[in-house]
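[DERIVE STRUCTURE TOKENS]
===
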Amino acid sequence: MAAKLPFISVVVVTFNRKGMLAQLLEALGRQDYPKERMERIVVDGGSTDGTPEFVRRKFPGWRVIHTADNIGHGGSINLGNAIARGGVVINFDDDAEPVGRDYLRRMAGKFSDTRVNFVAPKIINHFTKQIFWDGPTHAREPLANGSYDCAMFNGASYGIRKSVFDAAGGYDPEFFLHLEEQQYALKLRDAGFPLSYFPDIEVSHKMPAQIRFRGSRNRNAIRNTVQWCCKYLPWEYVLLTLFGVGSFFLQVAKGNADRGSVLGALEGIAQIPHYLRARGKTLSGKTVRYYFETKKTYTNGF
């Protein structure tokens, strides 16, 4: 049975959260996927809490890649996926946890359908057990394999063919944190690799860890929205972005914006010349329209 299973790479990215990381690695250690059919990689993006040493001591079966500096969420995923040897790469954030001992088996099994490039699972709030993310999608009915075509994914966990990652390239590391998944999902779609949402696979996400950083999260979100629009959207959307920034500051004047959002907007505006110089291949109008039409149709945690 084990010989028929694909060889997979499990990649976990982390930064200064060795407590939650330990819970995830323990849960992955209980998975029923044969150890000889996988490699396990932890990418530590410059942690200062002793994470690399802790993992090497407590979880010796994991290969640890440690960077001297914090290279951001997307940069860490790029590093782990680039060195992965498996035909399928299953990624995890350190604050996620698979639901069920067969999570890896079921995730890898979806790729037996050669039309599947990317698997996005349902995301459950670890504490409330409520749905946190259920896949933005146009489709009202599933495809024959039980999946739904979707526009985005949540980075708590997902699977991607190694060949797709190699062909499409990785994340834009300049996003560092927040909206990097949105940018990558649309990049994949534009390259001809649509995402598949499978609601029968679930992963839990430990949300309070994110809520603690709401101010910095809003700061990153506003700055990266400006970056995304200026670098990747057609020109008509860039003009709309500039109009949106002006409208945002009207809200600031009314006292309707937090400090993090204001800082993010100022940083984004200051970087507009850089973002415009960095414009390369932009997303097609078809992909952008698909994104905006589906964005309003999903249960979200963003």
Remarks:
- The first strand starts at residue 8 and ends at 14.
- The beta strands are 8-14, 38-44, 63-66, 88-93, 96-98, 118-125, 131-133, 148-150, 157-161, 195-205.
- Confidence is low (pLDDT under 50) at residues 209-213.
